[in-house]
Design goal:
Largest sheet: 8 strands, mixed
Distance between the termini: 66 Å
Number of helices: 19
Number of domains: 4
Shape: globular
CATH superfamily of the largest domain: Vaccinia Virus protein VP39
Radius of gyration: 27 Å
């Protein structure tokens, strides 16, 4: 069955106007069709001489989707926001050792969704990155584009002082990653008649990196139901570039995703969009918006209503198509802003007279439903609106992983993740956060293994072949539950209500029970980590008393007698590795 492409989407893919795309169809340049919904457009298979469409038809998306890292590639994320870019890179296979962000609510969002990430909250100007020098493979960040000064007229690093690009450049200089990436709005290409980008190019060269020719990526080509464009800058350290390693841009997805894909179960999400809070229109505005048809705007209102709603703007000319704009279910969304009901950039639901909800906003940015946003409703809209679409970041991340795999295949290195992670943690202020068990239950339903955990399997282990590089969770077991552990026949451990966010759940492999007044002795393997309830183990407990449950299997008695150790977190937990335990 041919793939339908609306005239609007063809215009967006080619960078032309809607009128031009419609003219192509009406004049017979390309065959024009009417789909089952009565909408006029094209079949992609008949547009093979249109480059963006040909790229989508000849794509290697499926092959690229399965690119996986040969080892742990460490990364630092600057200006992390609510995590759109960071999550996409994480999904591709990067291991973040540090994320820096100034906005307190965005930092809380990052910590809530990935408690194991090192989130350094605060002004980037105050961050010393030198402890990470030589320990990090990749650095990225969406630096805000401020006005640059050209007083020096040299176009080098010094001319970026006072901008946040300079802080990204400073981090690159102090860390010396193999590759770094910056992302920004499309307008940076033409900012100050291109002089801003020239300064950035020269600054990158001064740092000792080769800039890949910058490219504007259209999110609609990368499985994102949104007409958003981002300028991507990728730079490779000169010593690596000179060996012939090159970055290949990601192939696009095979079709354009729409709001129907975003809101309903199908190819993009496995269930309909969940209900959530959202802004509401005042009665006067709701009355006006109710008159706007799906895909329409202020021009579809009666003339007198246009004049009243538009005010002085009615007489100024120009399209102003963002005003009183209702989205279309069978088109991608317009670029999301920091609020869904601003008069100049209206984002009304296609079939209901209301602004988009928080979760609808998140889906359009391809955040998974489990990704929760902290703060009030305005904070959440702002965080989502400012984010890089997750699927776009994921596609770029896979291309970067492919580049790192090529580098590593020729120059294999042992993972420096633990060393870099330690250095990143040493840069953090001494703060500790608890996991919210209700959030964990919402993210991971009962009896579903916590995702991305390498220890969630049923593999048998040879008692004489222990992997001392694996992480161990040492946990205090209260006296009333100690009996099965004493006899080395415990099958599960359930946490207390309070569990520290600093424990790296996705790194745990072994478990050791701590007996009060004695210490540790026995080693268990963690087979599954999941959300459960205390009621599973104590009949009188509340069925909604959620805990993290580790299903465990006895491996061996590690010490002849109990070894006393100091429990590091709340005198209840220690997260370490087996090497450290064996060295006691």
């Amino acid at each position: 069955m041919p793939t339908f492409l609306s005239a609007t989407n063809l215009a967006d893919l080619t960078g032309t106007s809607l009128a031009t795309a419609q003219k192509w169809g009406e004049s017979g340049v390309y065959p024009y069709h009417r789909n089952e919904n009565g909408k006029e457009g094209f079949y992609m298979e008949e547009l093979t001489d249109v480059e963006p469409v040909r790229m989508m038809l000849d794509t290697n998306w499926d092959e690229e989707f399965h690119v996986a890292p040969l080892r742990d590639y460490t990364s630092v994320e600057l200006f992390a926001g609510a995590g759109g870019l960071a999550l996409g890179m994480h999904m591709a296979g990067f291991r973040h050792v540090l994320l820096n962000e100034m906005d307190a609510m965005a930092c809380q969002t990052l910590r809530r969704n990935h408690p194991e990430w090192n989130v350094l909250e605060g002004d980037i100007h105050q961050v010393d990155f030198t402890p990470l020098r030589g320990k990090v493979d990749f650095l990225s960040g969406g630096f805000p584009c401020q006005a640059f000064s050209y007083a020096g007229k040299k176009g080098g690093l010094n001319d970026t002082r006072g901008t946040l690009f300079f802080e990204l450049a400073r981090a690159v200089k102090e860390i010396q990653p193999k590759v770094f990436m910056g992302e920004n709005v499309k307008g940076l290409l033409s900012h100050e008649d291109g002089r801003t980008l020239d300064v950035i190019r020269n600054a990158i060269a001064e740092l000792g990196y080769t800039l890949v020719e910058p490219r504007v990526l259209k999110a609609i080509m990368y499985q994102v139901p949104q007409k958003r464009e981002r300028l991507i800058l990728v730079a490779i350290r000169n010593d690596i570039y000179e060996q012939g390693f090159r970055f290949k841009w990601p192939d696009p997805y095979r079709r354009v995703m729409t709001l129907r894909d975003a809101f309903f179960s199908g190819e993009l999400f496995d269930k309909d969009v969940p209900e959530s809070e959202g802004q509401l229109y005042p009665a006067k505005k709701a009355r006006v918006m109710a008159m706007v048809p799906e895909g329409g705007d202020w021009r579809d209102l009666p003339v007198e209503e246009q004049k009243e709603y538009m005010g002085g703007s009615f007489y100024l000319g120009g399209g102003k198509t963002g005003m009183a704009r209702r989205l279309s279910m069978d088109e991608p969304s317009l670029t999301l802003t920091c609020a869904p009901a601003q008069k100049q950039t209206e984002r009304c639901h296609p079939t209901e007279t209301r602004p988009l909800t928080v979760r609808e906003y998140a889906r359009i940015q391809t955040f998974p439903d489990y990704w929760k946003f902290e703060g009030n409703m305005a904070d959440q809209y702002k965080q989502i609106g400012n984010a890089v679409p997750v699927n776009l970041a994921f596609a770029i991340g896979r291309s970067l992983i492919r580049l790192f795999n090529e580098i590593d295949a020729q120059h294999p290195e042992e993972s420096q993740f633990e060393e870099a992670d330690k250095a990143g943690r040493e840069m953090l202020p001494p703060q500790l956060f608890e996991l919210d068990m209700f959030d964990m239950h919402e993210q991971y339903p009962m009896n579903v293994s916590i995702v991305n955990n390498p220890f969630a399997h049923k593999k048998n282990i040879d008692n004489n072949d222990l992997d001392d590089s694996k992480n161990v969770l040492v946990s205090l077991v209260p006296d009333k539950y100690i009996e099965p552990y004493t006899h080395q026949r415990a099958k599960a451990y359930f946490t207390g209500k309070k569990f520290p966010s600093t424990v790296k759940l996705n790194k745990l492999y072994y478990f050791m029970p701590y007996t009060k007044g004695k210490g540790i002795r026995d080693l268990y393997q963690i087979e599954v980590a999941r959300v459960g309830t205390k009621h599973e183990f104590v009949e009188t407990a509340d069925e909604n008393d959620f805990r993290i449950v580790f299903e465990i299997k006895f491996v061996k008695q590690l010490f002849e007698d109990y070894k006393p150790i100091k429990l590091m977190i709340w005198r209840t937990f220690t997260d370490t590795n087996l090497r450290a335990i064996l060295a006691m």
